[in-house]
Amino acid sequence: MSNRRWLIGLIVLVVGLGYILSQFILSTMKINELVQQIGHSNAETAQVKYVVLISQELDNPFWREMEKGAEAAADRLGIKLGYIGPIRSNPAEQIRLLEKAITARPDAILVQGMADPGYDQLISAAADQGIPVLTVDADEPESRRLAYVGTDNRAAGEQLGRLVLQDASSNGRIGVIIGSELADNQRLRLEGFRSIIAASPDHEIVDIRSSNISHIGAAQQTKDMLSQDGDIGMIVGFSSLDAGGIVEGIKAAHKEGVRVYGFDDLEITRQGIARGEIIASIVQQPREIGAKSIEWLSSFFNGEKLSDRYYIPTYILEQEASAVGGVRP
Q1: Membrane-spanning residues where (predicted)?
Q2: What confidence tens digit (pLDDT) does each residue in 191-216 have?
Q3: What is the set of domains in the chain, with CATH numbers?
Q4: Between the CA of residue 133 and those of 72, 98, 129, what are the distances in Å?
Q5: Mean pLDDT over residues 37-51, rounded?
Q6: DSSP secondary structure string for all residues of 77-94
């Protein structure tokens, strides 16, 4: 029996490694294909603009929604759009993809901001070559980026903080799961949230951990957090995959009555709200971010002057609104 289990485990491991390798190869092929497409597009006509959208994670639902919004706007405005990204969230891979995109010389690049000096240098290199870079989701305000289109992340953190203070069912001890310690949008959300919580004598942030933009990571960090401090009455997540993972981690820790708040409206988050496992979520509008980014680039191509940034509003999704498909402003 033990040999059989060992064989099954080995087969599962080999299949898993094979899948990861195949995804890496497909990603590399897609990048090379994109470079060729840009070259063909530039050779065919100077009238059609080619824009590259570099995601944080290729198949993350948030970024796929942004791609859909950008694609719809690009089709309407006669712009060609390329979409690439790491298989898993990987800052080093994002930098490599930005380097690749610049080498291919598209007409513009949409990319998530990243707190990295090398990233700023790449954005400057693109600007030197006449390639405008527009940041989305997270800003890179000290760089030479053209503009930022996305959520006002500090304001969204404040919005979540005010929502949490309205919850009278918690003991006020708060655990926090952030998606990444490197992402500027996560840092700003945490800053905004802290500023609101700090003003309340009845609430305290007792633990902060990173999920590494992973449902499994959020679940594990939540379980560990509750194992070390069983008196935490509320856990909030700042990235789209966190809330569902937090619920799973609470169950794994065999805890009850822990209040959960999250970000965005993935199907798992909507289901959790409908079941009462998640109290509410601050929802961004990635399709609007994608669409507005392309619209702004179209205006720029036509010689119009853009402002420094454009904020797409967020809204609150909670149980009553989720049940009827509505939202609370």
Answers
A1: none
A2: 999 999 999 999 999 999 999 989 99
A3: 27-150+287-311 (3.40.50.2300), 153-283 (3.40.50.2300)
A4: 20, 10, 11
A5: 65
A6: HTEEEEEE--SS--HHHH
